[in-house]
Design a protein that fits this description.
By secondary structure, the chain is mainly alpha-helical. The protein has a single domain, classed as Hypothetical protein af1432. 64% of the residues lie in helices and 0% in strands. It has 16 helices and no strands. α4 crosses α6, α7 runs antiparallel to α8 and α12 runs antiparallel to α13. The radius of gyration is 18 Å and the shape is globular.
Length: 285
């Protein structure tokens, strides 16, 4: 199985490709405003809440996601300000980004939205089993991990068709087919998209290295969790990541997280009720 990064000259070509892409998604203006507000230690949750609430459609999407099976809150979150207090600024910012950007997904790849929310739920399940206090942030990383595929579908449609045809011929994973057609894959596109958006490494590194978690340096455990979650949700057949194969789990990632084979069952016990309840947001766009 091919699992390589492009050589340096190809990586330089990727940068050229990114620069000439005319439809690289931009961070919604409201997300940029929220980012600036969050960086100010004097900003209150009510101030950020008022900003988000100015967009009624966006507010409704964020509240719907905040009350979804993702988080499993014991009480209903009824306002953006309350969501900010309970979930945290960074998580709500991620939900705003997600609900804005994923408007593009249903127009580009059938099943990718479902795969992405499934990976988010699985990321949260693994993080919960491990007792991590940043489970919500890791969940958002799982939600965004495949955004490079959106860039590919929107901007390189002919190459995307060639990748899909190679996948359809059988025996290769989506990112392997990307390497055959393009000499790089969606994680490379995700890397520069994250740079373009100035995303934190807790989101950027999983986007960049979810197929190569052993190479993660800045957020290795977060990246390893998203990697494991991606494979679990593929195995469950929830959504469609572009191919129907299930790649092997990186043993380096598995061991770094201190997971055992016997942990699969408790992960699934956390995950399966969430997957069963996610139908309420698969049509969120």
């Amino acid at each position: 199985m091919t699992d390589r990064q492009p050589p340096m000259q190809d990586r330089t070509q990727v940068r050229r490709d990114i620069r000439r892409i005319k439809n690289l998604p931009t961070v919604p203006g409201i997300v940029a405003k929220i980012s600036r507000m969050v960086e100010n230690p004097e900003t209150s949750a009510s101030e950020v809440g008022r900003l988000i609430s100015q967009d009624q459609v966006l507010s409704a999407k964020v509240l719907r996601m905040a009350n979804s099976a993702f988080f499993g809150m014991s009480r209903k979150i009824s306002s953006i300000s309350q969501a900010l207090v309970i979930l945290g600024f960074e998580v709500v910012k991620g939900l705003v980004l997600t609900s804005s950007v994923f408007d593009m997904i249903q127009k580009s790849m059938a099943g990718l939205w479902e795969h992405s929310i499934g990976c988010a739920a699985a990321s949260g399940a693994v993080a919960t089993l491990l007792g991590r206090d940043d489970a919500e942030e890791i969940l958002v990383a799982g939600l965004l991990h495949d955004l490079g595929k959106v860039v590919l579908a929107l901007n390189l449609p002919e190459e995307m068709r060639q990748v899909a045809a190679r996948v359809a011929s059988g025996g290769v994973l989506f990112y392997e087919a990307e390497h055959e057609v393009l000499d790089y894959d969606h994680s490379e596109l995700g890397q520069w998209l994250a740079e373009h958006w100035n995303l934190p490494e807790s989101l950027a590194e999983p986007m960049r290295l979810h197929h190569r978690p052993e190479k993660a340096v800045l957020k290795p455990e977060c990246t390893a969790i998203v990697h494991v979650a991606d494979i679990i949700v593929r195995a469950k057949g929830f959504g469609n990541a572009g191919d129907l194969l299930v790649p092997p789990v990186s043993m380096a990632a598995w061991e770094m997280l201190g997971l055992r084979k016997t942990d699969f069952l408790p992960i699934l016990e956390i995950l399966e009720p969430k997957l069963a309840s996610l139908c309420d947001i698969t049509s969120i766009n």
